[in-house]
Amino acid sequence: xxxxxxxxxxxxxxxxxxxxxxxxxxxxxxxxxxxxxxxxxxxxxxxxxxxxxxxxxxxxxxxxxxxxxxxxxxxxxxxxxxxxxxxxxxxxxxxxxxxxxxxxxxxxxxxxxxxxxxxxxxxxxxxxxxxxxxxxxxxxxxxxxxxxxxxxxxxxxxxxxxxxxxxxxxxxxxxxxxxxxxxxxxxxxxxxxxxxxxxxxxxxxxxxxxxxxxxxxxxxxxxxxxxxxxxxxxxxxxxxxxxxxxxxxxxxxxxxxxxxxxxxxxxxxxxxxxxxxxxxxxxxxxxxxxxxxxxxxxxxxxxxxxxxxxxxxxxxxxxxxxxxxxxxxxxxxxxxxxxxxxxxxxxxxxxxxxxxxxx
Length: 359
Prior knowledge:
Elements: E1 2-4, H1 7-19, E2 23-26, H2 33-50, E3 51-54, H3 64-75, E4 80-87, H4 89-106, E5 111-116, E6 127-131, E7 137-141, E8 149-151, H5 154-157, H6 162-180, H7 187-210, H8 215-229, H9 242-254, H10 258-273, H11 277-284, H12 298-316, H13 332-340, H14 346-357
């Protein structure tokens, strides 16, 4: 995987594509004006000789019908061997799923260049998700799904709506926190990278809020997003963590963007995790990195971390409730069961109470 952040390097990559006998798809991107304008730039760089087509119908949470349509466009053209995804988690994950399906049908993965325009960090993992006909998240994973080239370009990211940028920054924050207590996460590089990323996110998200056109703030946040997730590598065993599980239970079924699901769940999950001494010990490590002093009580310190995340959300204008997304109390049992994979017990009761507190 190549990680690139120079605009001159961006043009170099596309000059190299021009020199290769390949056909390329500038694929799935959310139908938003900022994404469409950026795709036009890439199409011009590729030129007609190397641009097989553009698919812009992938929307939030990558619905399977749209994904099937995009897959058919790619797999029915044997000249296509490269995907270029532009946008956030949905287009990036969609390109991964298309590559996965290519492997299943033809025995080969597609080369994937991605230009992220949010902070969701989907570009850093070997997994991808889409939404089936029932509104349930479906996951695929393979080491070859990690994009071969990631291009972080602050001029592209400047076109992203600020609320989307900030909320996906909280998604990155969610990665950093949940990896600290993830069972298979190593101290180095995973946890050390997460702690560095977390410090940068706490510092630069408020700065970006004040100066959304500042390219230094944007670039630092892009690199923090990368550090929030890349360190896990192939060491993902099972589900990611409770905040993420709640995000999946809330996101696709109720049309809540993944960045906003993290805003809804992360502070409360951190406070819930404070009841577990091992988890509390890891979470408490965060305090000195956000300008707070640790005490000798890990549980109290972990709760303070949850409170600090709440304060950050208020500063960013991202505090919200489930009622803002028309989620009523009668949905709590279904959401809780999906997030905990159970329909009773201590964890079920705690999570149901957590969800109720966000109504």
